Amino acid sequence: MRKLKEEVVQFLRNQGYVIVSTIDDKGFPHNACKGIVKINRNGTIYLLDLYKAETYENLKHNSHISITAADEHKFIGYCLKGRAKIIAEDKIKPELLRAWEDRIASRLTQRLLKNIREEKGHSRHPEILLPQPEYMIEMEVEEIIDLTPHQLK
Prior knowledge:
The chain is an alpha+beta fold. It is 25% helix and 37% strand. Strands 1-2-3-6-5-4 form a 6-stranded antiparallel beta barrel.
């Protein structure tokens, strides 16, 4: 497991979502948007998944996973590669569920504020319609790739 620098932790905490990549049974990548619920400097990342669909099926057969996030405005980003474990819904710690609910409330608040300022976005509030998580992904980071171009570092 790789320890994470504070700048990486803060960058990922500030993302509304990350792209989670898994590998299907034919060897093809599958990408999905997921929200980070908790991230530790020790290299453990927790993501809640709302559906037992392709990501879930892929992780049952292949624990390799990566998460990617980029900030176009700041021209920085990271890809973290590692292995994942599936945590059943009834084994999710209550504090992680509360953290997820807090993130959803924050996203909803940000969307409302942007709509009040008349910034274009989704006309409805899709966060309200999200179901409860069906399981949790616990990722242990093994490799960190800084996506910032070398000449900008």
